[in-house]
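Hi support team,

I've been running sequence recovery on a batch of backbones for a student project. Most finish fine, but this one hangs at about 90% for roughly twenty minutes before it completes. I'm not sure whether the input is malformed or the queue is just slow. I've pasted the structure tokens below so you can try to reproduce it. Let me know if you need the job ID as well.

Thanks,
M.K.
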């Protein structure tokens, strides 16, 4: 695979997406873009979602309604690109029409209150389901009727940080938790605590983020809250690769200060390539290619390695980068490469062509006043 563009990408647009005390700015949490690339949703630590045009950075408006930390945003239906879904610690999954920025539907945790936080959600399944991860439960709704069809409270013992429906084997739902377990659930079977069919893989430490990759999405990458990466084989239900001392290893492969944290993983479509996005507290980040030496025996995982950094995004942020949205595969020749958001409240676009930096800031009246809320990096979401 070709290296992902120039070594150092150009900062195209810098937007101060959220405002607060300069010593304690509001955070940018997550970034999601619809399939038509006409709307980009950005969740903030103010409990609001701001909308921008991903090609121009033009501000389109706000979706305001959540009263707790927003744990996820997604445009899940390619056939309905105007529908945005968001989940929150306020115990709701809300559907927004981005054309008028109005809430049009909501799913609610059956037990609202301190134990009713929602930390993750996913849309899929063979019967149009919405799954959510809560403090220790996995909830499943029928998206069309909005009826709760399952409350699985025996799969995990701590916060369920990730839920993902498999992109091709749509009956499979994968869940991950602070308890260190990954469960693979067959949603085509009865979804009751007594009858649910699932298989378990143990990571051994608190899980922060997972994702499918591989030619047939047959593998799962896993990032933990202690900043480690591992890869798991979904068919064999076993660990395929372990990346020991992940931050130390990737730090050897770029010329900047040591890597302090892992952000996400990316895989070009229909390939077995895997890239790790990682950064430092100065706001610089890079993409590192994962390497998988042949293991000494088929029964033990490969000791994963990293190659030299493929590209570096530096000069846009001055604090931790929390989210990255890639506009294409890593080896594409398109100009717009990515948007990033961070704990400095900034939203930055990055280009592979010679762009000129220009700063922009837009703010609506209901976002000027900073709202309270947890912004800790390792909250369950």
């Amino acid at each position: 695979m070709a290296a992902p563009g120039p070594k150092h990408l150009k900062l195209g647009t810098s937007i101060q997406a959220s405002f607060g005390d300069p010593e304690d700015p509001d955070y940018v949490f997550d970034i999601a873009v619809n399939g038509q690339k006409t709307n980009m949703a950005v969740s903030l630590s103010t409990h609001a979602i701001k909308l921008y045009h991903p090609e121009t950075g033009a501000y389109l408006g706000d979706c305001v309604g959540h009263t707790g930390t927003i744990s996820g945003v997604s445009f899940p239906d390619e056939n309905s690109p105007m529908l945005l879904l968001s989940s929150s610690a306020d115990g709701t999954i809300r559907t927004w029409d981005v054309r008028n920025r109005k809430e049009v539907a909501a799913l609610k945790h059956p037990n609202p209150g301190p134990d009713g936080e929602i930390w993750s959600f996913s849309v899929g399944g063979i019967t149009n389901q919405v799954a959510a991860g809560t403090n220790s439960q996995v909830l499943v709704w029928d998206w069309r009727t909005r009826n709760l069809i399952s409350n699985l409270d025996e799969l995990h013992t701590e916060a369920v940080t990730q839920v993902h429906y498999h992109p091709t084997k749509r009956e499979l739902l994968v869940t991950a938790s602070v308890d260190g377990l990954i469960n693979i659930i067959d949603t085509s079977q009865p979804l009751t605590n007594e009858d649910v069919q699932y298989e378990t893989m143990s990571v051994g430490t608190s899980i922060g983020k997972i994702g499918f990759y591989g030619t047939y999405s047959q593998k799962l990458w896993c990032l933990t809250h202690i900043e480690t990466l591992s890869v798991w084989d979904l068919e064999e239900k076993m660990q395929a690769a372990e990346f020991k001392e992940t931050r130390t290893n990737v730090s050897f492969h770029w010329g900047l200060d040591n890597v302090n944290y892992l952000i996400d993983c990316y895989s070009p479509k229909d390939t077995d390539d895997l890239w790790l996005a990682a950064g430092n507290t100065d706001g610089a980040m890079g993409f590192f290619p994962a390497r998988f030496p042949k293991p000494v025996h088929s029964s033990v995982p490969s000791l994963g390695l990293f190659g030299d950094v493929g590209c570096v995004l530096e000069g846009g942020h001055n604090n931790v980068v929390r989210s990255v949205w890639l506009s294409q595969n890593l080896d594409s020749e398109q100009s717009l490469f990515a948007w990033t958001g961070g704990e400095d409240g900034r939203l930055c676009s990055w280009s592979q062509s010679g762009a000129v930096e220009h700063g922009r800031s837009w703010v609506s009246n209901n976002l000027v006043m900073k709202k309270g809320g947890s912004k800790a990096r390792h909250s369950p979401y």
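--
Follow-up from support: It reproduced on our side and the slowdown came from queue contention, not your input. The two ends are 32 Å apart (CA to CA). No action needed from you.
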